Amino acid sequence: MTSTHLDGLAPRQAPSAAEFADAQASPQFQDLRNRLRRFVFPMTALFLLWYLGYVLLGAYAHDFMSRPVFGNINVGLLFGLGQFVSTFAITALYVRFANRELDPRAAAIRGYLEGDRA
Q: Which pLDDT tens digit goes with each residue over 22-32?
C-alpha cells in the first residue's frame, strides 16, 4: 500500500538539485527575484533613512523634538509613533505587493518543479 496525498494522488518525487538549479536560472525566476529586489531594497533604504532621521533629530534637535503639539504630546513622541505607523504601512504594502506580483510567479515556478507542467 502506498501513501497518498489528501487529494488521493500518489506523492510526487522531490525535484532534483539539477531541476532546482535550472529553475533558478530560468527567466521566470530571474523576473521574480528582480521584482522582489525592486520593492525590498528601496523600501528598506527609505525606512532606514526615516529611522536615522528620527534618531538624529532626537540626539541633536532637542528643542525641535520637545516642541509641544498639544497637551503633553510633543513632536518627538509623534515621530516615535510614526515609526510604528510606518512599519505597519510598509508591511501592508509588502503583503499587497507580494499577493499581486510575487505569489502568482512563485506558484508557477513551484508548480513547474512539482510536475504541474501543463
A: 999 999 999 99
